[in-house]
Amino acid sequence: MNEMAQLQKRRLALYGWMLAAPALALMSLFAFYPAIATLWHSLFTRGTTRRPSVFAGLDNYSDLFADPTFWTVASNNLIYAGITIPVSIFFALAMALWANAHIPARSFVRSAYFTPTILPMIAAANLWLFFYTPDLGVIDQITGFFGAEPTNWLGQPETALASIIIVTIWKESGFFMIFYLAALQTIPPDLREAARIEGAGRWTYTRRILLPLLMPTTIFVFVNAMINSVKLIDHLFILTKGGPNNASKLILYWIWEMAFAYFDSPHAAAMTILVLLTLGIVAVIQFRLVEKRTHYR
User: Fold this and answer.
1) Contact present, 249 and 235 (Cβ < 8 Å)
2) Taking the chain (297 residues) in consecutive chunks of 10 residues, what is each chunk's mean pLDDT?
3) Domains in the chain: boundaries
4) Predicted TM-score (pTM) of this structure
5) Which of 6, 8, 198, 260 fits a 20 to 30 Å CA distance from 161?
């Protein structure tokens, strides 16, 4: 009897590995192997035809920490993520609540909110480039109506990063709204009726019932927003190219610049590993702390 149970257990384990094999193969090919290869490459110096690369250990990482540009880019990305993530989630939730309500032209409202998402990144950047054009752009035309002087929004350090942040919020809020809208439509209306019978107002219902039920969606949206915050590059190519004076330069653009503009792939690989480690640490903290308070229906 024990032998039959052991055989059944082995068969189930084999079936499990067979089902997981395609996903494991794809993950190994497109995630694990590139990450390991990048880590290995980050431990060597930059090679040339006359001077081949040699093992350098952690020298590339120490070079990054000693580079002032590293701290500028890291602080830029921290500010960028610290603003775009919560603001995009807030607007996405607000838009989803409005688009899910019984309002006139509800389909039009949903389409209008989602339109920025379907625009290609380059097209959206060019659209905002027209908005930000000094003196001739839409923003300066509006502010000039109230007597304000023309502003070079993308050409001065004080406003360049903020201009990129606004474009990102405008682009991502509609995308995240779709997930919240789908989650809202799975919540039974009986819960709202029961809360109303118990005397709960709209704010109490939202805070005590709706938001906890939307927490799994919020976690999913947060993870996507966090990943997006370190992979922005399209808008920077069109709008600022990381300038002026690195004021709007973000991590992925700097990695691309090191690898393909300066041909310094070892330092670019080292920066990539640092980004992966940071995302991994944030993910562990999130799943250990936030997941415990998440209600899955």
Assistant:
1) no
2) 76 86 91 92 86 88 94 95 95 90 77 85 89 89 86 91 94 92 87 79 81 88 90 89 91 94 92 92 78 57
3) 1-41, 58-292
4) 0.87
5) 260
